[in-house]
Design a protein that fits this description.
single chain, alpha+beta, 4-stranded mixed beta sheet, 4 strands, elongated
């Protein structure tokens, strides 16, 4: 499955529709506590970086699964969004346009 953030991929295609994948993910209490301690001294909070990376991968996989069910060859115009749902939990969404290459 070709996944790109641009819409002009140098090939003709038929638009199949919007596809998306989302997840709300959190870290366990121990990691959340250590992240809170890290805010006192500054720097990257690696536990949250890992959490967001993992959530993006899951959201992307779910988007691809949806596109495959539609018979898509590619997903164009892919974007990611995220928001905090509650302390220690984030929502990540991946979305784009499923297309069938000609």
């Amino acid at each position: 499955m070709k996944i790109v953030s641009i819409e002009n991929i140098g090939q003709e295609y038929e638009v199949l529709g919007l596809v998306k994948g989302e997840i709300v993910q959190s870290k366990h209490f121990g990691r959340d506590f250590m992240a809170g301690m890290k805010t006192l001294v500054g720097g990257e909070i690696k536990g949250y970086t890992e959490m967001i990376r993992e959530a993006r991968q899951i959201a992307t996989r779910r988007m691809v699964d949806e596109a495959e069910k539609m018979g898509a060859d590619a997903i164009i115009g892919v974007k990611f969004g995220s928001s905090t749902v509650m302390q220690g939990a984030a929502e990540v969404i991946a979305y784009g346009t499923a297309v069938k290459l000609k």
